[in-house]
Amino acid sequence: MKWDIKNIKNWKYNQHLEGALIPEAGNAEYYKTGGWRTERPVIDKEKCTNCLFCWIFCPDTSVIVEDAKIKEFDYDHCKGCGVCAVECPKSAISMIDENEFKKQENT
Amino acid sequence: MAKTVALTGNAACAQAMRQINPDVVAAYPITPQTTIVEEFATFVANGKVNTEFINVESEHSAMSACVGASAAGARVMTTTSSQGLALMWEILYIASSLRLPIVMHNVNRTLSGPINIHCDHSDSMGARDAGWIQLFCENAQEAYDTTIQAIRIAENKNVHLPVMILYDGFIISHAITRLELLEDEDVKKFVGDYKPEKYLLDIENPVAVGSFDGLHGFYFEHKKVQNEVIERSKDVIVKVGNEYGKLSGRSYGLFEEYKLDDAEVGIVVLGSTAGTAKLVVDQMRDNNKKVGLLKLRSFRPFPAKELFDSLKKLKALAVLDRSSSTGSFGGPLFGEIRSAFYDGKNSPKIIGYIYGLGGRDVSLNDIEKVCNDLSDIVKTGKIKKEIDYLGVRE
Ligand code: SF4
Ligand code: SF4
């Protein structure tokens, strides 16, 4: 069942589902956890061998794979935990301070 | 046709569980509840029920397994006492807030310490804010009858709340008394099939249960709903109690009034002490003293308005608490009854007694003393002691 929660913050007390049930499976993706990040994983495709360790280890399924190759990170949900960078056998992932990107955006 | 039998309260409740034949029972033995679990486990082993019996290593796990099974869509029962209920504490709140219709006996036993295995109501009173319906029973017959009704109350679509059936440890749980059991078929028909509406094992309509709410924060809203729902459950408790009366000849409501109609003074009490108190009321009546009794069955929901209407004509009222809420103004029942009378005009004078803690016997003389204290209050218009103890060695 698709669950329309656009206005959920304004729902009256009796509009919620009984027992705080969530009728839509896997809807955690609506919750964008990318804002929690202080460091951003950045991949060096030159070094990467596409072993997919990072994809296996990422606790937030934020490594996007296409045709058995690393495509990109899902920055909407990546929390910047750095697990992928630690686990990468080729040290192909660097964790970069988010402020660096903010500075770039501002200039 | 009902069968007349001689059983302990625990054996009677085990029989009720056999007749209900729940999908899942997860329980851990504790005195004085143990013999229900023992007997029910025998029914499971002998194939008398289809129940999945889950052996657990603690009551915390018992209630957790009940929550999981109930959320999955099963009809679930368990039983406990005292420290066991205390160990279930945090999961009790989860069960009620998830609106799971779990039915549980709590065989009343005091909470340690000093360590004590005997009856008082401190265990269930400690769980009074956990969002469960709490129904107190006077004897084994009521415990058996209430077990069967509890399934219907909990699963009613306007309720969907867990129900705790409370009866006094040893006094009811272990004493053999005469009672009537319904036919298996009649119980089966009365409780009906359980058809949950939204549940985890419904793979066509997947749901998430028990998700974290702290970021958006709807906890407050859900609590208001729980308050409204448990208040509404009063009607269901009465309706199911009446329907059960048609089946068995024994009707139930939120409380029982005993010789209250023309009474001048009255006693409010929970559980097995009501039996003792009824005898004293009868004796007082023989001596032309207008004494009455109200035995409260439904402590949660607390029927404040109904109690007010029933007791408002009295001149003096004594509330007997078999638990002490240490540091409070009187026992829990006393506090709530007094509060129900705050706005009343010409309200009776209300006094409270703490009695029977740790299984201290309550005798006819004790109840007589209460009646005499009440008569003195009516005569003199004065209360000597607002909150007193009954039967403590002073
Ligand atoms: S930093 Fe953490 S969350 Fe982000 S992609 Fe790497 S492992 Fe996943
Ligand atoms: S772990 Fe390193 S080498 Fe392996 S796929 Fe990920 S980035 Fe590439």
Return the CATH class of the domain at 34-105 in chain A: Alpha Beta
Largest sheet descriptor of chain B: 7 strands, mixed
SS field, number of helical segments of chain A? 3
Order of helices and strands of chain A: EHEEHEH
Number of domains of chain B: 2
* Lateral arrangement of strands in the main beta sheet of chain B: 3-2-4-5-7-6-12
Protein chain pair with the most extensive contact, residues per chain: A-B, 19 and 23 residues
Descriptive account of the structure:
The complex is a heterodimer of chains A (107) and B (394). Chain A has 107 residues and is of the alpha+beta class. Chain A contains three helices and four strands, in the order βαββαβα. Chain A has a domain at 34-105: 2-Layer Sandwich (Alpha-Beta Plaits). In chain A, β2 (63-66) and β3 (69-73) form a beta hairpin. Chain A starts with 38 loop residues before the first strand and ends with a helix. In chain B, the strands form three sheets. Chain B has a seven-stranded mixed β-sheet, sandwiched between helices. A six-stranded mixed β-sheet of chain B has the order 9-11-10-13-14-15, with helices on both faces. Chain B has a two-stranded antiparallel ribbon with strand order 1-8. In chain B, α9 packs across α12 and α10 (304-311) packs across α11. The model of chain B has no long low-confidence stretch (mean pLDDT 97). Chains A and B meet through loops of A and α8 of B. Bound molecules: iron/sulfur cluster (2 copies). One iron/sulfur cluster binds next to α2 of chain A.
Which helices and strands, and how do they pair?
The complex is a heterodimer of chains A (107) and B (394).
Chain A: E1 39-43, H1 53-57, E2 63-66, E3 69-73, H2 83-87, E4 93-97, H3 98-106
Antiparallel strand pairs in A: 1-4, 2-3
Chain B: E1 3-8, H1 9-20, E2 24-27, H2 34-45, E3 52-55, H3 59-72, E4 76-80, H4 82-97, E5 103-108, H5 122-126, E6 133-136, H6 140-155, E7 163-168, E8 176-181, H7 184-191, H8 219-248, E9 255-258, E10 265-269, H9 273-286, E11 291-296, E12 298-300, H10 304-311, E13 316-321, H11 332-340, E14 349-355, H12 364-380, E15 387-390
Parallel strand pairs in B: 2-3, 2-4, 4-5, 5-7, 6-7, 10-11, 10-13, 13-14, 14-15
Antiparallel strand pairs in B: 1-8, 6-12, 9-11
Helix pairs in contact in B: 1-2, 1-6, 3-4, 6-8, 9-12, 10-11
The structure holds iron/sulfur cluster (SF4) (2 copies).
